Amino acid sequence: MDHRDFLLDDLGRRIQSSTIIHLGEYALVVRRFDTAIKMPVVHTYDADTSINVCRAQLRQEQRIYRCLQPDLRQELQGVVPCTAVWGNTIELQYMSQGTLGQMLESRGVPSLPLQRRWLYQLAIGLDSIHSRRILHNDIAPRNLLLDDSLNIKFTDFGVSSIVPKNEDMHDFMDGYNCSMWTDLIQLGSVFYAILGGQRSVVNIYPNHGAFAEYPPLDTLPDVSHMWAAGVIEDCWNPRELHGGAREVVQRIKNVVSYYEDLEAGCTNLGMKRPR
Ligand SMILES: Nc1ncnc2c1ncn2[C@@H]1O[C@H](COP(=O)(O)OP(=O)(O)O)[C@@H](O)[C@H]1O
Ligand SMILES: [Mg+2]
């Protein structure tokens, strides 16, 4: 009899190591054709208690997907499409170009057209998520995936929360002090990473704490030399963004079209760059 320890899928079948994309603390992601399947981490000899913790985590993420994509045939703009939810697993469209983090690490600063496209797609994605009353709570380059055409989409709703129907999105804070404003701070940090070709620098969970905090403004990096400076600064100072992610979408559109006009030579020289 074979007593070696193997990873098992949700039906108790042994997982081939060549199919593993990622092995985390709670979740395992394996590739099957054009899907990535996220499932709880289960080893042959794991205790039931530890398996149950992983399963509960996946089931919470399934609940989030049911809010984001109540009809699985309809994708949500800017979010990695979920193709099926069964048992304790989540099936997602396979994103062939990996994470934003991997891309920045291997290729450095992206081209200007890619920077513009990604900022715009991310703002749209976060607006879609918030419009479904979900807080992402873990927006970081490792949780943003790229498809064949280098479109960027949100994934990993493992620590997300649902804003109850009787609460105002603008005022709501979950049990870990997360809110739409902390999502925007993290979004600004990802923008900074994209424009600088490096890792995000803003941490809303200081000292490895579980509770989110607004980072003091004077500890944040200087972005004045970046084309999206005004947008990033306002993401970091949420009092400036009453319209939330939807306002970020509009602001990026304005800045991008200002620069496109400038490049095409049709901007009035006296016109100020929009913030
Ligand atoms: N749909 C997907 N396509 C390709 N790779 C994926 C996909 N989903 C997840 N991954 C890979 O698996 C990693 C972990 O997935 P994630 O959902 O972030 O799980 P965790 O909750 O463990 O962080 C991602 O950073 C990415 O590298
Ligand atoms: Mg993750």
Main attributes of the structure:
alpha+beta, Phosphorylase Kinase, domain 1, Transferase(Phosphotransferase), domain 1, 6 helices, binds adenosine-5'-diphosphate, binds magnesium ion, Kinase-like_dom_sf, Tyr_kinase_AS, chromosome
Q: Explain this structure to me?
A:
- The protein has 275 residues and is an alpha+beta fold.
- Helices cover 35% and strands 13% of the residues.
- It has 6 helices and 9 strands; from the N terminus they run βββαββααββββααα.
- The protein has helices at residues 48-68, 100-107, 112-131, 180-196, 229-236, 244-264, and strands at 20-23, 27-32, 35-40, 82-86, 89-93, 134-135, 144-146, 152-154, 161-162.
- β4 (82-86) and β5 (89-93) form a beta hairpin.
- α3 runs antiparallel to α4 (180-196), α3 (112-131) runs antiparallel to α6 (244-264) and α4 runs antiparallel to α5 (229-236).
- The mean pLDDT is 94.
Percent of residues in beta strands: 5-15%
Terminal residue distance: 67 Å
CATH class of the largest domain: Mainly Alpha
Total strands: 9
Radius of gyration: 20 Å
Structural class: alpha+beta
